[in-house]
Amino acid sequence: MKMTTRIPPEIITPDRVETRLGALEFFDGIPTEATTGKVYDQLDFSRGIEAFLNGIPAASMVAIREGMRSVGAVDGTIGIFQDLMDSRSIFLTANTESVYYGTWIDLRKGSIVIESPPNVLGVVNDFWFRYVCDLGNAGPDKGQGGKYLILPPDHEGAVPEGYFSFKSPTFGNLVMGRGFMRDGSPKAAAQAIRALMRVYPLSEADSPHPPKLVELSGREMNTVHANTLRFYEELDEVIQEEPEDSFGPDMMGLFNAIGLRKGRPFNPDDRMRKILSDAVAVGNAIARSFDFRSRDPGIAIYPGEHWNTPFLGGSYQWLSQGGARNLDARTMFFYAATINTPAMAVAMPGVGSQYAFANLDADGNAFDGSQTYRLTVPPNVPVKDFWSVVAYDTQTRSMLQTDQQFPSFSSEREHKVNGDGSVDVIFSPARPAGDRNWVQTLPGKSWFTIFRLYGPLQAWFDKTWRLPDVERESGSYSGRRWRH
Length: 484
Hints:
By secondary structure, the chain is α+β, with helices and mostly antiparallel strands. Helix content is about 25%, strand content about 25%.
């Protein structure tokens, strides 16, 4: 034709294209009806996966709120693990050495005052698990205790004086903290929290506030989100309760695309229920791959070995120096952990705590609860306070439930020390004869562990002190006896 020009071949869509979805067919670039149905199914499936991976922080918060509601730790009543948290509580990678306390606050009726006790590490996170502020040692009160005012997202006008004031992007917020044992006892920290921790509306600031606490040690409670279609219902709770722009327009657009819309019921039809059920199953597999078999070499604390950092890139916001967010790293963290604060990610020698996850043994294999493993902790652990290891269930990412109330070992306990000053910690189903340094495991169940340093010193950060991988021992387990 008169106007015909050369068309670059790379802009042309062939009539038939072979893809991982199978053959996609077109009539001069127009998808056939069958191809259209196939690609829309794929689009909804892909968005369902992304909604799962990016919605984990919010769904986790919904599960935590539900758990706290079940024990009454909401609206100013503070839940406290006075005698420490044990394995009865299903709570993502909690430790056995801190006096945990917390409550859920709702800012829909106005600002909330938090009176924080001294010498704690506390934090306020919004409903999307984003950092609002620190309380205590890492907060503006510098560990002396103080009054905080949390303002709702729609707050306008003057802010009352006499408070450390912070505005949250959401109405729902988690207040969570931990006190520290003294001489191996949680008593002093628990007493201080009980005596001084208060949470109440700003409108009642002039009224007396007697303590409102509920003891949680030994209580059964679940705070872990679902890995089924129920996950999207948990996510929908946040979408319905919070401002529509509270997680940004692009992410909210992703949620809208699979039927999660503010002001509308989430009611997928049979086709969408099937697609989303598949999406959450694949999303769950992806999240577990991030946590247990990450492909990012930056996760390794020691290159080529198997102790990993939970803060890939060293940022509590999972941002690169250029400002790009590592979405996989954020998913990896929140699938296995809770609480978001820069105090956990920033290197502060002698302050706070540091974490190393071991999800695989020295040979790169998953831990087998029927086998015996040895962690040899070298001498002169670089800590101002103490160190510990806790065993976790790979399914719940919570403490491993065995005959031990506390599935852990701490340097504060009475323990056996080797001649060179190192300490061997044994993980096995049965206690080795005469060995006090033992964490029980379960045949037929895998596990992983976290090594924590309380008051970490410079040698941890510059890696002049190194933690070796967990080694599998030879031998097999049968009943209550070991065969070598």
